[in-house]
Amino acid sequence: MQKQHKGYSSTITDALAHTNAGYKSLSAARIHICTSQDSLVELTPAKPLSLDAFTLCLRFATELKGKREVILFAYRTQYFDELNVWRETDGRLSLYLSGPGAFFEVPELGPLANHVCLTWESLTGRTTMYVNGRSSASKIYQRGHRVRPGGKVILGQDPDNFLGDFQAEQSFVGEIFGVNMWDHVLPSVAIQLLSTGEDFSDANVLDWATVTIIPTGSVVEFQKRSLDLKPTTHALF
Question: In degrees to the nearest 10, what's the CA dihedral of 32, 35, 37, 42?
Fold first, then answer.
């Protein structure tokens, strides 16, 4: 990098209904991306990324340390970094939508798997980062913007042009899985449930359970399995 959907109330009701109905495991392939300038995974979305709002969630585990940028998610059109999520050199998480970024102070992410979600809506510009179910202070970012279709979704590398100009020092090395995206903002209670392993809603842009995964380079896809997470019993509010 050169530096009408389901409403909140019904989504919360659905989420709580699933909680009351019992635990549902989340099955997911784990992708291991090795150190390389050309190791990456392309995901084929279920619909074009023409978005005026979204929720993006993923799980990752990496042992990368030090003053190093790490690309967590990249959506690139021919001329623009339409939607990029980074771990910055100082440990902050960031979102870039075709321009300067929004930055979030988060607790240090250790080498064990973390669940990260990001919500954004164009109408208000409200942008919120979630780490393991806990939310940041929201920021106002790119109000009135729209994410444009016609690009590629990439894990592991940051393309500085359309699927090219990768930089090894910005690449992701480790395991990444559970990448899901919706074309609307999920409420906090839903994201909290997702962080504990609940699988209550099909993602309508990227659904990790069904998405086509196209690996390139040193990438290993592990067999699909349950995350083996336990249901939570504490209050969600």
Answer: 0
Q: What distance in Å separates the CA atoms of residue 130 and residue 137, rounded to the nearest whole number?
A: 9
Longest dimension (CA), the chain: 49
**Tokens 């990260």 sit at which residue?**
116
Task: Tell me the HSE value of 67 on the side-chain side, using a 13 A CA sphere.
Answer: 0
| Per-chain mean pLDDT for the chain | 81
Q: State the pTM of this model.
A: 0.80
Q: How many residues comprise the chain?
A: 237
Options 1.10.760.10, 2.60.120.200, 2.40.128.120, 3.40.50.720; CATH for 29-221 is 2.60.120.200
Sketch the domain layout of the chain as residue ranges.
29-221
What are the backbone dihedrals phi and psi of residue 221, each rounded to the nearest 5 degrees, phi first? Answer: -105, 120
Quickly count: other Cβ atoms within 10 Å of residue 10's Cβ: 10
91: tokens are 């440990």
CA distances from 19 to 13, 14, 126, 151, 232 (A): 10, 9, 28, 36, 9
Span 15-35, mean pLDDT?
A: 51
pLDDT value of position 168: 63
Give Rg (Cα) of the chain: 17
As a dihedral over the C-alpha atoms of residue 80, residue 116, residue 118, residue 99, rounded to 10 degrees, the angle is -30
